[in-house]
Design a protein that fits this description.
Number of helices: 19
Oligomer: single chain
Keywords: Glycosidase, Hydrolase
Pfam families: Glyco_hydro_3 (PF00933), Glyco_hydro_3_C (PF01915)
Protein name: Beta-glucosidase
Radius of gyration: 25 Å
Family: Belongs to the glycosyl hydrolase 3 family.
Number of strands: 17
Largest sheet: 6 strands, mixed
GO molecular function, one term: beta-glucosidase activity
Shape: globular
Strand content: 5-15%
Length: 603
């Protein structure tokens, strides 16, 4: 124990100071480097003193890899780090943004837009706790969440990663940070990172800042905003995250009035670190250095220089780490990046590693593996689904509500592309980066939930795309039609039209012309709802991207629980009206905060 940094009883700042004093320049710049698991191996981590490894979207040890498989891989990388001269552990980062969504069998929660509809900060905190446990079970102590974007335009491909268009709703939902990291004790110093122990993870408030307000909703685009708008609307949720001891902040690909966020020294250093007192680490987004120039990767050396000098502490390289290390070393040796900047970065990285307990407990706690996807965790997700559903219409006559449905119905029709598709229910960032169709993990579709609820008492006819023949007998009590978007993420989800795909409108209209129908829309954002459909349908539910627990939908449809979700965004009539703002003078289809309620049936 002659090294203070190895003494678990020494103060964190003493340990940081001691370790920093022992490090060579090469070890320091290694710590500033985060590499992808596909190029990582124990010897490279050891020899280069690499600070962190990550999984890019959907990057996993192999298809359908379970938590134990992940833990084996991550612990293998960790062994390499501990074999280095100073034995500095890595942290492994993963996009656990709605549950530990890369891992087979994990509990998948509704995407953030659905959680915004719940307005329930305590529920979101509990979701953070479950996500932390399931993420730790796979060996990762670092989740790239929450996204605290205030999303102003549903044409944006990441709209569903935002809780709301309204700053106050987003601020409320930053409770996820305390769920992921644990609640800091009374008197915890403001801005200082915090992790409560081995059952919690480091969080990452992202994407700093203004990512939700780019022009026309173009991903990675330009946010045109005044200083006051940027601070009062978009920066405000970061202050709440910092107050909860958030360990990391991730910079945004986007620009503010034409200036790229990743090299924005005023916002990254003067505002975030100096004015707001953030003491954690500031990380780039994936390949952000390449994306700093147009065309991409036009001047890598200059990109390294401008981001590090602007205040970036760790770079998500993720592949070309030899090149990054070479350029960074040369820039420091030439004096173009001052040594004080390197020391500030490494101090922050080490602080977070000590706070997270990685020096004492670098390996996976395998006792957590049995909790992954357990009943108690799925119950939290099911509750989240119930509370997230927004009822937009209930009965053609307000005095005669159509919902709740009758469990004693003799025969019902279940239709639509989304009634029996777990991948569609989960959306992007599930199993893979963009998401998939079908049985992508363990979970319950709407059809599964209906069969479980109604049993043999009700004949359920399932036709994804019904025809006239389907209605030949004409004896359905009612129909449930689930339509919506296919999965997408990031730029691939940018959509200037927002029409319901897969002929969803046509399917729902065809059915509702023939039998009383409730339409369920599975989507990451408001879509164009054609007036004839809304007029004809008996009930219309916005279900967002609910995740693996489809029974949360049937819980509410049949009256075991009431509808209580409220729109976290304004629902436009036509895309010509976009972007609509919550405080604007518009005439939307449904206003921000709209949501009908229902009575619960006596059980």
């Amino acid at each position: 124990m002659d090294c203070i940094y190895k003494d678990p009883n020494a103060a964190v700042e003493e340990r940081v100071k001691d370790l920093l004093s022992r490090m060579t320049l090469k070890e320091k710049i290694g710590q500033m480097t985060q590499i992808e698991r596909a190029v990582a191996n124990p010897s490279a981590i050891r020899d280069r003193c690499i600070g962190s490894v990550l999984s890019g979207g959907g990057s996993r040890p192999f298809e359908n890899a379970e938590s134990a498989d992940w833990a084996n891989m991550i612990d293998g990388f960790q062994k390499g780090a501990l074999d280095s001269r100073l034995g500095i552990p890595i942290f492994y980062g993963t996009d656990a943004i709605h549950g530990n969504n890369n891992v087979w069998g994990a509990t998948i929660f509704p995407h953030n837009i659905g959680l915004g509809a719940t307005r329930d900060a305590d529920l979101v905190r509990r979701i953070g706790e479950v996500t932390a446990l399931e993420t730790r079970a796979c060996g990762s102590p670092y989740a790239f969440a929450p996204c605290v974007a205030v999303a102003k335009d549903p044409r944006w491909g990441r709209f569903y990663e935002s809780y709301s268009e309204d700053t106050e709703v987003v601020r409320k939902m930053t409770s996820l940070v305390s769920g992921l990291q644990g609640q800091p004790p009374e008197g915890h110093p403001y801005g200082y990172p915090y992790v409560a122990g081995r059952n919690y993870v480091m969080a990452s408030a992202k994407h700093f800042v203004g990512d939700g307000a780019t022009e026309k909703g173009i991903n990675e685009g330009n946010t045109i905003a005044s200083h006051d708008e940027m601070f009062n609307i978009h920066l405000a949720p970061y202050i709440d995250c910092i107050a909860q001891g958030v360990c990391t902040v991730m910079a945004s690909y986007s620009s503010w009035n034409g200036d790229k966020m990743h090299s924005h020294k005023y916002l990254l250093t003067e505002v975030l670190k100096d004015k707001l007192g953030f003491k954690g680490l500031l990380i780039t987004d994936w390949e952000a250095l390449e994306r700093l120039t147009d065309p991409h990767d036009a001047d890598y050396r200059q990109s390294v220089k401008s981001t590090i000098n602007a205040g970036i502490d760790m770079v998500m390289v993720p592949f070309r780490y030899e090149l990054f290390l070479k350029e960074l070393l040369s820039l420091v040796e030439s004096g173009e990046i001052p040594m004080t900047r390197i020391d500030d970065a490494v101090e922050r990285i080490l602080r977070v590693k000590f706070v997270a307990g990685l020096f004492e407990h670098p390996f996976t706690d395998r006792s957590l593996i049995d909790l992954v996807g357990c009943k108690a965790h799925r119950e939290v997700a099911r509750e989240a689904v119930r509370k997230s559903l927004v009822l937009l219409k209930n009965g053609k006559d307000p005095k005669k509500p159509f919902l709740p449905l009758d469990k004693a119905a003799k025969k019902i029709l279940v239709a639509g592309t989304h009634a029996d598709d777990l991948g569609y229910q989960c959306g992007g960032w599930t199993a893979t980066w963009t998401g998939l169709s079908g049985r992508i993990t363990v979970g319950t579709t709407i059809l599964d939930a209906l069969r479980e609820l109604l049993g043999n008492k009700t004949e359920i006819v399932f036709e994804p795309n019904p025809t006239a023949e389907t209605f030949a007998s004409q004896d359905f009590s009612f129909a449930i039609v689930a339509i919506g978007e296919g999965p997408y993420c990031e730029t691939g989800g940018d959509d200037p039209e927002l029409k319901i795909p897969f002929n969803g409108t046509e399917i729902a209209t065809f059915v509702t012309d023939r039998v009383p129908t409730v339409t369920i829309l599975i989507s990451g954002r408001p879509m164009v709802i054609e007036p004839p459909l809304l007029e004809k349908v008996e009930a219309f539910v916005a279900a967002w991207l609910p995740g693996t627990e489809g029974a949360g939908i049937t819980d509410v449809l049949f009256g075991d629980f009431p509808f209580q979700g409220k729109l976290p965004v304004t629902w436009f009539k036509t895309v010509d009206e976009l972007p609509m703002h919550v405080h604007g003078n518009s005439n939307p289809l449904f206003p921000f905060g709209f949501g009908l309620t229902t009575e619960t049936k006596q059980k």
